Automatic annotation (TrEMBL):
Keyword Transcription regulation: yes
Statement: the UniProt record of this protein carries the keyword Repressor: no
Species per Swiss-Prot/TrEMBL record: Zingiber officinale
Pfam families hit by this protein: Myb_DNA-binding
Listed name of the protein: MYB protein
GO CC terms in record: nucleus
DNA sequence: AATTACGTCAACCGCTTTTGC
DNA sequence: GGCAAAAGCGGTTGACGTAAT
C-alpha cells in the first residue's frame, strides 16, 4: 500500500486547513450537479485546489444536506452510551444509528463530554465498568502483606489462622468497597435523576442509599450477604416505551456496562479463590476481577518472591 | 485589560479495508 | 489470487473561543 494521496498532494502545493465559503460553495455546487463520483478526480473537476480526501471529509462531515447540527439530545446521548458499551470506538457504526450525525461529531462529543462524564461518575469509559478493579488488586495486596510478614518470620504459616486473617481483611475491604460503590451510585442518582436505580441495583428496595451508607459506617461487622456481588436484574433508566438499541444486541453480547445504560446488567463477577493459601478455600465472587488463571503460580515464583522481599 | 488555561471541534494523518482490474 | 488505487476509519492536532486569574 502506498502513501495516502493527500500526503503526496502536499508536495503539489494543494491547500490545507479550514475551508472558505467559496470553496464550500464550489464543492456543493459540483456535487449537487454531478454527484461526487471519484473523490480523487473531483477537486480538479470542481475547480478546487484540495485533495480528494479533504473534499470527501468536508462533504461528509459538514456540507451534506442531511447533517443535523446542534446539541445532542438526551436520547441521542443515551444511544451513544448504549452503542459504545457494545461497539467500543466504532464511530462510524455508531453514527449509522444516529441519522444526521457524523462519526467525527460523535467522536468529538464522546471525547469532550461523555468520556468525562463517565470518568466523573467513576466508570472506565472504555469498559463501562467501575474504574477501581478493587478485588483484583485487593487480593494481591493482602497476599503480599501476608507473604511479607511470613518472609520476615513475623507470621507463622498456619493455614487456619492465616485463612481467618485473610477473611477478616477481605471482609473489611469488601465493606469499604461496598461503601465506595454506594456513594458512587448515590452520586449517579443525584446527577442523573435515576429514581429507583440504586435500590434496583443493590436490591435494597426499602432502604435509602444514604441510610445504608450510614448503617455500614457504624457496623462492626460486614455481613457477607450484603456485598453486592450479584446483579441479576437488568437495569434501566429509560421509560418502558423507549426501546433500546442494546436489546438488539443483548442476545449475542455479554459486555458489562455502566449502570445508567439502558437495560444493562451490571458487570459479571469472577470467582477469586484463595485455595492456594493453606486451607483457606473461601471463594469470593466479586465485581470485575479478572486475574489471569496463573496468577498464583507467578506469585509464588522464586524470582517474584525475591523481588518482592 | 492582559494573560493563561481550558474546552471544543473541524480538519488532518496514517493505517486498514474494500474495490476493480 | 495478486496488486494498486480508492475509500473508509479512528486517533490526533491545532486554531479558535471562552472562562478564570
Amino acid at each position: 500500500m502506498g502513501r495516502s494521496p493527500c500526503g503526496a498532494d502536499k508536495i503539489n502545493g494543494l491547500k490545507k486547513g479550514p475551508w472558505t465559503p467559496e470553496e464550500d460553495h464550489k464543492l456543493v455546487q459540483y456535487i449537487e450537479k454531478h454527484g461526487h463520483g471519484s473523490w480523487r478526480a473531483l477537486p480538479k473537476l470542481a475547480g478546487l485546489n484540495r485533495c480528494g480526501k479533504s473534499c470527501r471529509l468536508r462533504w461528509t462531515n459538514y456540507l451534506r444536506p442531511d447533517i443535523k447540527r446542534g446539541k445532542f439530545s438526551p436520547e441521542e446521548e443515551q444511544t451513544i452510551l448504549d452503542l459504545h458499551s457494545i461497539l467500543g470506538n466504532k464511530w462510524s457504526a455508531i453514527a449509522s444509528r444516529l441519522p444526521g450525525r457524523t462519526d467525527n461529531e460523535i467522536k468529538n462529543f464522546w471525547n469532550t463530554h461523555l468520556k468525562k462524564k463517565l470518568i466523573h461518575l467513576g466508570f472506565d469509559p472504555m469498559t463501562h465498568r467501575p474504574r477501581t478493579n478493587f478485588f483484583a488488586t485487593l487480593q494481591q495486596l493482602v497476599v503480599f502483606a501476608k507473604l511479607r510478614e511470613f518472609a520476615e518470620g513475623r507470621l507463622p504459616w498456619d493455614g487456619h489462622s492465616s485463612a481467618a486473617g485473610l477473611q477478616a481483611d477481605v471482609n473489611q475491604a469488601a465493606k469499604l468497597q461496598y461503601l465506595q460503590q454506594l456513594q458512587m451510585l448515590a452520586s449517579i442518582a443525584s446527577s442523573a435523576d435515576t429514581n429507583g436505580l440504586i435500590n434496583h441495583i443493590t436490591g435494597t428496595d426499602s432502604i435509602p442509599v444514604q441510610e445504608e451508607i450510614d448503617h455500614l459506617n457504624h457496623a462492626e461487622t460486614f455481613p457477607e450477604t450484603q456485598i453486592p456481588c450479584s446483579f441479576d436484574q437488568p437495569v434501566s433508566i429509560k421509560n418502558d416505551n423507549q426501546s433500546s438499541i442494546f436489546t438488539e444486541f443483548s442476545q449475542r453480547e455479554n459486555s458489562p456496562r455502566s449502570p445508567f445504560l439502558s437495560h444493562s446488567p451490571l458487570p459479571p463477577f469472577t470467582d477469586i479463590s484463595f485455595g492456594n493459601l493453606g486451607d483457606a478455600s473461601t471463594s469470593y465472587s466479586c465485581l470485575g476481577s479478572d486475574l489471569p488463571p496463573s496468577w498464583s503460580d507467578s506469585l509464588f515464583d522464586g524470582q517474584f518472591l525475591t523481588d518482592f522481599a
